[in-house]
Amino acid sequence: MDARAAPAGDASVVVAAPAVALRTAVGLRRGAGDPTWHATPDGVWHGRPTPDGPATLRLRARPDGVEAHAWGPGARAALADVPGLLGRLDDVTGFAAHLHPAVHAAARAHPDLRLPRSGEVWPTLVTAVLEQRVVGLDAHASWRRLVLRHGEPAPGPAPAGLRVCPAPGVWASLPVWEWRGAGVDAQRSGAVQRAAVVAHRFTADLEPDELARRVRTVVGIGPWTAAETTARALGDPDAVQVGDAHLPHLVGWALTGRRADDAGMLHLLAPWAGHRQRVVVLLERAYRGRMPTYGPRAARARPMR
């Protein structure tokens, strides 16, 4: 059914995409317990804020593509983002995997890899800030607790417990004990709250470079957080997470067999300008868990991101 012909607050559309595209969308989930994502026998469910209000989105594979059904005030806006969620807007034109054997092998091993574009700038920025300088499990636990306590229930026939990320005003007003109870320190909570005041400036219609520039005007947000935000929210194929504790070593080891720092990583990725995020994702899929360890796994200290 054409989404434009569906009743207000209840709409559906079928996107021509392989079933594997569902994994592209689910890859945006922040941990297995992310309360904005649920998987059931009836499909993959996602609670999401939109400019028109909250929405519940259900995705499920069909022989002719992926069916998306949405409920709530933001149903139509949510459906408009489905092609991006499924990676159907990702343009691989100009990507030269053959420039290095490791990248070529990774691309051949993952021929269906597409970069998703969630269109959700604010939730993505919040999760990126929460992931600064801590292990992923801790950041995901903080996100889960704060969204479960302060997010609104997803509209429509959503699974029990599915939530929508709180609006910026809610994050701005959270008292200190809520942050500390969720394991979020003053530097990260302060960054989220400062960003919340100017969140209206962070919109999905911006080019990645402009969105990165705007979010980096917020004290406590640096290049790593900006790159995480543009990569996930806008599907930025050229984002590079400078300041990551492990990524330079992975890129260096995969491409040269030696460790690298941020400058070395950027030098190694330069031949793929315009597609550096694509190379990073391919190398992470191909080599994560195979590279030598260079220190304690939990040593995550990073510069301001």
Indicate the topology:
Elements: E1 10-15, H1 21-26, E2 37-40, E3 43-50, E4 53-62, E5 65-71, H2 75-80, H3 82-85, H4 101-109, H5 121-130, H6 136-150, E6 152-153, E7 163-164, H7 168-173, H8 176-181, H9 186-197, H10 208-215, H11 223-234, H12 247-256, H13 262-269, H14 276-287
Antiparallel strand pairs: 1-5, 2-3, 3-4, 4-5, 6-7
GO molecular function: alkylated DNA binding; DNA-3-methyladenine glycosylase activity; DNA-7-methylguanine glycosylase activity
Protein name: 3-methyladenine DNA glycosylase
Keywords: DNA damage, DNA repair
How many helix segments? 14
Q: Would you give the CATH topology of the domain at 121-229?
A: Endonuclease III, domain 1
Q: Give the % helix.
A: 40-55%
- Total number of beta strands: 7
- Under the CATH scheme, which architecture of the domain at 121-229 would be assigned? Orthogonal Bundle
Order of helices and strands: EHEEEEHHHHHEEHHHHHHHH
| Uncertain stretches | 1-7, 295-304
